[in-house]
Amino acid sequence: MHKTLKLFADRNINVALIHPSPIRGKEWEYTFVIEVECHISDERMNGLWDEFCMLGISLQPLRFLGSYETKTLKRRQADGNYFYCGTSRNR
């Protein structure tokens, strides 16, 4: 896990979610869905998949499930103060 998170940390990419799922028929082996706050076209993602393979982290080919852009919106509350919220748009 440390090696995986370090790849993202070295690129200043925030990991938002790590979801483990057991692999059927393989006791104590898991596959993971990792959601990061970085669009697939961002230059920080260049070479990331290759590094996963070179470090031997992934025993199976990695699968890309999708990418979406996020925006932070500034909204005004009734008392005149502002708060920020995130939204997403599927790609």
Q: Which homologous superfamily in CATH is the superfamily?
A: ACT domain
CATH topology (fold) name: Alpha-Beta Plaits
Q: How many DSSP H or I helices?
A: 2
Mean pLDDT: 76
Can you summarize the main beta sheet?
Answer: 2 strands, antiparallel
What is the CA-based Rg, rounded? 17 Å
Strand content: 35-45%
N-to-C order of helices and strands = HEEHEE
Report the structural category: alpha+beta
Fold topology:
Blueprint: H1 2-10, E1 15-22, E2 30-36, H2 48-55, E3 68-76, E4 82-90
Antiparallel strand pairs: 1-2, 3-4
Helix pairs in contact: 1-2
Quick synopsis:
With 91 residues, this protein is α+β, with helices and mostly antiparallel strands.
Keywords, please?
Alpha-Beta Plaits, 2 helices, alpha+beta, 36% strand, disordered C terminus
Overview of this structure, please?
This protein is an alpha+beta fold and 91 residues long. It has one domain (2-66): ACT domain (Alpha-Beta Plaits, 2-Layer Sandwich), CATH 3.30.70.260. The chain is built from 2 helices and 4 strands. It has helices at 2-10, 48-55, and strands at residues 15-22, 30-36, 68-76, 82-90. The strands form 2 sheets. Strands 1-2 form a two-stranded antiparallel ribbon. A two-stranded antiparallel sheet has the order 3-4. α1 packs antiparallel against α2. The longest helix has 9 residues, at 2-10. Residues 85-91 have low confidence and may be disordered.
